[in-house]
User: Fold this.
Amino acid sequence: MWTRPRDQQVGLPTHTLDVDRVRSHFDFADLGRVVTNNAASTQPPRELAALLVTLTKGYENVHRGQSIASQQTTELFEASYDTFAQWLNAPSRRTIATYRNTTEAINAVMYSLLTDFRDGDNVVTTMLEHNSDFVPWYGMCREILPRFGRHVECRLARFDHRTGELDLDHLAELVDHRTKLVCVTGASNFLGTKPPLTLIRAIADGSGYRRDDGSSGSLLLVDAAQLVPSSYVDVQRLDVDYLAFSCHKVLAPFGVGILYAKERLLAQARPFLYGGDMIATGRVAPDRVEYNDLPWKYAAGTPNILGVIVSAYALRLLPDLVGVDGSTRWFTSTAPLPAPLVAETMNRVGRHTAELTDLALCEAMSIDGLSCYGPAAGLPRSPLLAFNVAGVDPFALAENLGRLGVEARAGCHCATLAHRDLGLDPPASCRLSFALYNSRDDMTYAMDAVRRVTDQLRRRPGLT
Ligand SMILES: Cc1ncc(COP(=O)(O)O)c(C=O)c1O
Assistant:
């Protein structure tokens, strides 16, 4: 493996976050890796690996045993739901469901709502979406509902090709009195755009869609896979109906996605998965099944118990890593996470990653032939930059960056609609994305490597 020279491994402290201190919790930092593919997945801190080992000593199923081990694991598992709720400032654990990832969480909403769509309804989503927040709606509208004789349209709002901003006027035009649901990304994983969720909420509220309970307005789902890792998200303030994110993008291991939904929606909806534990104890008869209380109505089958617990602890560790409250170790405490603590933690992470992104964007602008997509430096955006260099294959660029230790990603990043809409052929770009543990040295080294590799590839286009 390529190793970065030792003297380049030390990050400058920034005004917002002590990066050296953060990095001391991660093994990758000692390997000289320039970890800049964080929009795909972040690295796990050492504490979580240790926690996993500790948990395996009391390894047992949840809600399925009377042993002390089972009871203790159940307690930890249930408390994880409280942590997820606190992280999002959700009213309670009753508004939380856990799935494998964001994709599964959005599919869960689709399958739960499926039969509620009326013939002639529509779903409005955007050309900015990750495939996880387009393909389920495409599938529902084009493949599933037509088989039941119901026709529901999937409409796509445009974005401005120059600025990457969502065309709100177009979105407002598409939303009408037959729009049951508006689905939008909180932060794009390709352009970096952060659509204004408060305005979109207002557009959805004003749609005039007639709900079964007599009220009116469209539901709003936010794909927060790229929003939660670098910002404070308060679901009550945003007043979203559904919000999904993946814990593997917030320091946790793979395998856990969180769905927040308003309690009344979860209470009245059909479950996505049917089976054990999601039923009310003893309330199953051949002709009648009753469901468990929230949130366990949405926890069919043995869940990813250790993954869920460790994911909650990944969130609890963040304030400690960022050093927001020097007097408490939230990772080892069981106290509820106060909303101001979470807000300050994520504001610091957001400021740090935004600073790195802006600096990288400015560097990028000085590289001959390089075009970055999305909002300009200084504007709200997710901490990533996706770009192409005239005459350079993005895959060759990413591979060569990899040889220099810079972990980039080339492809369409599952934002296929936006790549195609921009006329990119192949529909691909090279992307660098930052997390709280990235130093300024990482950024400088990565951008320097981009400059060197593009020069080389331009001179020898066949080089891979
Ligand atoms: C904006 C966005 N939505 C959804 C996803 C899907 O996440 P997962 O693969 O964890 O389901 C991603 C992953 O990169 C993403 O960036």
